[in-house]
Write a sequence for this structure.
């Protein structure tokens, strides 16, 4: 019997270390990527077009049948707290009938102001406050 020590191969260990290194490099790249895109996304999220889309969704989901809400005479306005989406909306009631176009405001902080939820004097004061400075393209 030969008692000379056998040299073990380190190939498996080397492979594991290389794989670990590549995994760490990939993980670091993924961590840095969202930071760069978050600032671009934040810029996109403040455009009037994006704000109008979010506002329409928020207003629609404040109604009984969100998929059946109609909008008209809509515009964006500069408001004290960012942008305001000023519109008239027509929605269905519990019986499926449309209730008629009523004014509504959706603010960029996701708050909603609907004419059917306030007395007309209070709503008009809010409309004049939020919807008197339209955004021009």
């Amino acid at each position: 019997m030969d008692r000379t020590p056998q040299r073990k191969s380190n190939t498996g260990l080397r492979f594991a270390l290389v794989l670990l290194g590549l995994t760490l490099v990939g993980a670091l790249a993924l961590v840095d990527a969202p930071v760069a895109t978050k600032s671009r996304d934040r810029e996109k999220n403040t455009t009037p077009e994006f704000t109008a889309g979010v506002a329409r969704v928020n207003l629609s989901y404040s109604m009984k049948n969100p998929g059946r809400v109609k909008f008209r005479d809509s515009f964006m306005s500069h408001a004290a707290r960012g942008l305001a989406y000023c519109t008239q909306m027509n929605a269905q009631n519990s019986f499926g009938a449309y209730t008629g176009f009523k004014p509504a405001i959706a603010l960029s902080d996701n708050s909603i102001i609907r004419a059917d939820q306030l007395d007309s004097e209070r709503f008009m004061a809010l409309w004049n406050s939020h919807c008197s400075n339209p955004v021009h393209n």
Observations:
- Residues 28-43 have pLDDT under 50 and may be disordered.
- The radius of gyration is 29 Å.
- The CA atoms of residues 27 and 33 lie 10 Å apart.
